[in-house]
Structures are given as C-alpha cells and as structure tokens.
Amino acid sequence: MHYEAIVIGGNFAGLSAAMQLARARRKILLIDAQKPRNRFSQASHGFLGQDGVAPAAIIAEGKRQLAAYPTVAFADGEAISASKTGDKFSVALKDGREFTASRLILATGVKDTLPEIPGLSERWGRTALHCPYCHGYEVRDRALGILGSHPFSVHAALLLPDWGPATYFSQGLFEADADQHAQLAARGVTIENTPIAEFMGTAPELEAVRLQDGRVLPLSAIFVAPKVSMASPLAEQLGCAFDEAPLGPVIRLDDRKETTVKGVYAAGDATNPMHNATLASASGVLAGVHCHQSLALPVLH
Q: Which residues of the chain have pLDDT under 50?
C-alpha cells in the first residue's frame, strides 16, 4: 500500500501533523508504537482546553477525531526501519508489515535517562517531574527541589520559588558560582551541594531525601531534567542531521520543519530542546502543513 504521507508517532505532535493532512484530503497512514513519552503522567497541564486531562485520554480523542476522515489509515506497531529510494520512502514494522509513501513525518519522540539515584525512577511523572510549568501548580506550597543535572539547572532553580519553598541540589556536579549564589539567595532558594543518596517514602509519593552524609531532608517533589536520546533509529537510518542540545540531540530542521533529507519532516520532542505538550502539537501542525504544501506545490519545495 502506497500513501502520500506516513506519519510515524501517535502522540500530540504526530496526531496534529496527521490532522492537517487529513483535512487536506491526502491519503495518509499513522503508525503508532503506543508507547508515548507522557504515559507516566496522570494529567497534562498548561495545554489550552486540555488542562488536567490524562495524556492517554487526549490521544484517544485525537485518534477518534482523526478516524472520521476517510483518507486516514492506522497501523499500530513499532516502525524499526526506514529508507529512501528515489522519491519513495519505505517503512518496515517490527511485525513484518511494510509501507511506502511519498513523504514521511517523524514524530518519534525521545526517551529519558534519569540520574541513577535509588527511588527516583519509580516516582517519575508523579513526584519526580520534568517541568514546573507543566506540573508545578499541582505541587504548590510544598517542599520542592531541583536536581542539578545540566548546566542550566540553576536557572530552573531560580524559577521554582514561584511554586513553593525551593532547594537546589547541585549533586556536587553543577554548583552555583558566586553570582548564581547571590541570585539564588535573593530568590530564597536553599543550596545543597551534598549529593542525594536516596529518595524516601512510599512511591510514587515522596516524603524526604537522604543525603550522602546521612542527613534526611523533607521533600514533596523534585524537578529533574533527564538526559534524552532518540526513541527511534529512523532519523539516523534516513541520514538526517542532528544538533546537540543541552540534554541530548535534536533533529535538525529548516523553517518548514523539513529535515536535511528532502521529503522527511519532523516534529515534537525529538526536534526541540524545550519539551511541552503545546509546543509538540504546534510543531506537528507546522510539519503537517508544510508536508502538504510540498505535495500540492512540489515545484516550490
């Protein structure tokens, strides 16, 4: 079966891209491995019109709406390889199915690698959180922490007091310099350079942290930016170029959301160092629109 476009990834970015193509009456296929990055989170916040709604519910409703368009087909499964021959792309799934298309949109996302601290991973998405804009309001006025995991962690710590009393845990790796010390003090942020040895309490709840020197400090939520890597090998297989961001690689795009491989577009967390539901959806819209324009007006693209 040949399609005008294949969208790989069924989360916010992929669904948003597919919607633009569906409404342009293009014959498309949405391939979804059904392992969204946000599956660990109970609710999506700060997403206009969807505040407090579970990501799985948003995805399910998006698919329901997309299925109303007669030119859309769905394939649940993991895409494990992609290649380009001439002007045609081939995509193979783990279960052996193969599809071809004139265009690809990669909304394949990233995978998170958390610091190896006992008790952290089982709290991920609940009391170990990636973004105060997404989850800070839900843990407001509690004892909050920022885990130093990259050079911009101090900047995140400076923002945190707007949600509650904050401690910056540098882990002894990303200690604040003199100017940053002054800024943190002015914002009322406590600085703790002794590394955290363990997160305590009945997971997924968080009650305290034990430091390597034996001290126990009360804590209700910790914000941490994990290292990220591509959740799928497809962009690399196709020969797409990458840029290095503070937390890991991102797929290089031009202003039309096209990768360095002609005919391959991309959207979502794999393309942006700032990860947010609204931004993912918006990038999907742009990728879908520009992909459609490349089909409708190929001479101009």
A: none
